[in-house]
Design brief:
The protein is mainly α and 154 residues long. It has five helices and two strands, in the order H-H-H-E-E-H-H. Strands 1-2 form a two-stranded antiparallel ribbon. Helix 1 packs antiparallel against helix 3, helix 2 packs parallel to helix 3 and helix 2 runs antiparallel to helix 4.
Length: 154
Amino acid sequence: MKDHFIQLFNYDKYANLLIAETIIKANNAGKAVGLMAHLLSAQQVWLSRCKGEQVTGQVLWPDWKTDTLEQLINDNHRAWINFLDYLSPDDLETSISYKSLKGDPFENKLIDILTHVINHGTHHRAQTGQQLKFDGVDTLPNTDYIAYLRIKGL
C-alpha cells in the first residue's frame, strides 16, 4: 500500500507540473495561481501534521507568484516521498492527532489523510483548469491518473 501512495504522489507531482506549465504559458497570475498556491500550501500543512509537528503561521491561501510554483511542487513532492519512504505498512493505520488552523482538535488515520491530500489536489487542479478556461486558455493538459499511468508505462 505504501508503494501505491508513492505512485499517487508521483502522479500528483506530474499533474501539478502540467497545470503550472499551463499557467506559465498563459501568463496567468490570477485566480489560477491562487488555487495552485492553496493546493501546495495545504500539502505542506498536512505533511507537518503527519510528522507530528505543530502548524502555526501557515497561510492556506498564500500570495505566491507564478515563478515559484515549479520549485514548490518539486519541494513538496520530495518532502512527501521522503516521509513515505520511512513508513512501515502498519504506520498507515496509525491515528494522527492534529489541530485545524482554527485550533479544533481532530484525529484521523494516516491512510485517510494521504487519500485526502491526493483528492484535495485533484479537486483544486480541476478548479484551476476551469479558471484557466475562463481566462481564455483553449487547451488544458490531460491530468487524468490513467493517462499518467499510460505515459509512464505503468
